[in-house]
Amino acid sequence: MSKTILIVDDDKKIRDMLRLYLAKDQYYIVEALNGREALYVARYEKPDLILLDLMMPEMNGIEFMKIYRREANTPVIMLTARASEIDEILGLEIGADDYITKPFIIQALRARVKAVLRRASGDAVESDVLRVGEMVLDRTGRIFKIKGETVNLTPSEFSLLELLMLNCGRAYSRIDLLQHITDGPVLESQTRAIDVHVRNLRAKIEPNCNEPRFIQTVYGMGYRFMDGD
Amino acid sequence: MSKTILIVDDDKKIRDMLRLYLAKDQYYIVEALNGREALYVARYEKPDLILLDLMMPEMNGIEFMKIYRREANTPVIMLTARASEIDEILGLEIGADDYITKPFIIQALRARVKAVLRRASGDAVESDVLRVGEMVLDRTGRIFKIKGETVNLTPSEFSLLELLMLNCGRAYSRIDLLQHITDGPVLESQTRAIDVHVRNLRAKIEPNCNEPRFIQTVYGMGYRFMDGD
DNA sequence: ATTATTTGTCATGGAGTTCTAAAAATGGCG
DNA sequence: CGCCATTTTTAGAACTCCATGACAAATAAT
Fold first, then answer.
1. Is B83 in Cβ contact with A227 (below 8 Å)?
2. Chain-chain contact of A71 with B56 (C-beta, under 8 angstroms)
3. pLDDT for A44-98, tens place per residue?
4. Which of A168, A213, A219, A227 best tests the B interface by mutation, with the highest count of B CBs <10 A?
5. How much is the pTM?
6. Domains (ranges, CATH) in chain A?
7. How far apart are CA B32 and CA B14, in angstroms?
């Protein structure tokens, strides 16, 4: 079954060029000239991916995202004219999955489109890929990535993070966590080992280890995974 | 007699998957594609539990809840795509009983469905997420919020508030309260400690500490939680 | 067999929490 | 009102809990 891609750009030349090349990869292409139009088209067509220009008349990319992100979780690749705009994209909480600056090489874009669609198709419920922000935990592949970079996790660390991410927002006691990464009975005394694993995990995945954003300590209880922006 | 579960999600793949697996547990499953449809189905079928996607076209989960909560008290498990949406669920006045982030493992969801139905079938509704006015106490997440702002509670304070909110309106003696926050035997003498905890709690949750609105003193007896506006 | 990696133990210091004790304030009731 | 019982408030001592670093044991890799 062919994937649907929505192209949003006010420049006809760019839309044509994108349609031409992406059609080669057997996608079904729909278009919109600005954010307002994109909203209508997206709601109707339910695209699998959106290529979104940042600067447009009527309604720009950021405004579009603000509204659309409340309705769907469709992956988005942002198209920006200037490199400096990238900061803006990353800085604001737009929720773009990737970005590329114009003028871009069409092959680079094709590769990213493929990559995002591959990731996202695994995003369905039956999938084994957990995504939180820039982090991707692939359960079947036992691979963990941040911003596309593979981060090496030990078996215990992976197992721990797996439970926490799967049950995002829930607080777990050390005993529960220990039970999950161990087979067989566990001893109350081994409970401090979890602290050490958490420390090592934080060193690998937290932007700032002293102010954990994802793996939070629940005083008197244990730990919780959550995106505490 | 078989329980009825209403699944509300615009993604057919997710609906199919949920129906398939939940049917194994002998539930009667009904479906809706968005909030608007869900309203009709819910009114007609009167489900015992609703699995509700947050992001949907036509009418999203939040809007649905705003309307439906005025009509019925059916327990709801929210399905969210992104971790950051949990904050929204807890922050806004959505009366959800539990939540789970996609993608989830079906076993986890089955367990929670069972848990919610078990709690709800006994007429005492023991939700995971307790809500009184602007306050939200997330029992499994161990998070307490007022107007969307996280308020840090110590383990004893959390435990105390949990019991009181769960049994809203009921007065408890200091011994009972002490027993609840302690494991092991308690001493009559420690009973004054409760006063201190209550004081600290009031400082954190009462709009005006001198005129407690929520944690009320029952003279000669103990304390009671109640919205005494 | 040797090395590297991973896992678990322990001690320490500091942060956060709980409890006590005593004084001040308040409520109930004759 | 005035008294006593009860609750509130305060401060600090005692305690619990967690992060950290150093290290030893177990396990896997070479």
1. yes
2. yes
3. 888 888 998 887 777 777 888 888 887 877 888 888 766 666 655 554 556 666 7
4. A168
5. 0.66
6. 4-121 (3.40.50.2300), 129-225 (1.10.10.10)
7. 12
